[in-house]
Amino acid sequence: MITLTAKMQAAEGKEQELEAVLRELVKGTATEEGSVEYRLHRVLDTPGAFRFVEKFKDQEAFDFHANSDHFKAAIEKIGKLTAGDGELEMLELIDSIPE
After folding, report:
1. pLDDT at 99
2. Residue 15 falls within a domain, yes or no?
3. Is 92 exposed, middle or buried (0-12, 13-18, 19+ CB in 10 A)?
4. CA 99 to chain centre
5. Could you give the CA distance from residue 30 to residue 33 in angstroms, rounded to a whole number?
6. Predicted structure pTM score
7. Residue 47 gets which letter from DSSP?
8. With contact defined as beta carbons under 8 Å apart, do 53 and 39 qualify?
9. Measured distance CA(71)–CA(75) in Å, rounded
10. Within-domain flag for 96
11. Containing domain of residue 83, as a range?
């Protein structure tokens, strides 16, 4: 299982436009066979900040996602709507409680 978080901050005045692009990215990713979880969050105490929590079946599924047409198109748009670079963190689950 591949788990990661993706963090980004909307450029001033671009919050709604960025959110719309991110929501479309969720829709496109939902059709990917190896996508296990792909959740978009708004950061409550930081206006214009968004976070994804993502899980993919394996590295092959993650690579498929990263190379998909809908992801590449979204990344191109996101780059024009964000302030600074986003941040991607790969995670290793070491313990949990069931959902």
Report:
1. 75
2. yes
3. exposed
4. 21
5. 8
6. 0.91
7. T
8. yes
9. 6
10. no
11. 2-88
The number of residues making up the chain comes to 99
Mode of pairing for the β-strands spanning 35-42 and 49-56: antiparallel
Residue 50's contacts (CB-CB under 8 Å, 6 or more residues apart) are 7, 8, 9, 10, 18, 19, 22, 40, 41, 42, 43
50 within domain boundaries = yes
> Using CA atoms, how far apart are residues 78 and 22, in angstroms rounded to an integer?
8
In this structure, are residues 61 and 55 in contact, taking their beta carbons and an 8 Å threshold? no
E strands in 1-99: 2-9, 35-42, 49-56, 87-91
Q: What is the pLDDT of residues 18-35, one digit of tens each?
A: 999 999 999 999 999 999
Assign residue 27 the CATH number of its domain: 3.30.70.100
In the sheet where 35-42 sits, what is the strand order? 35-42, 49-56, 2-9, 87-91
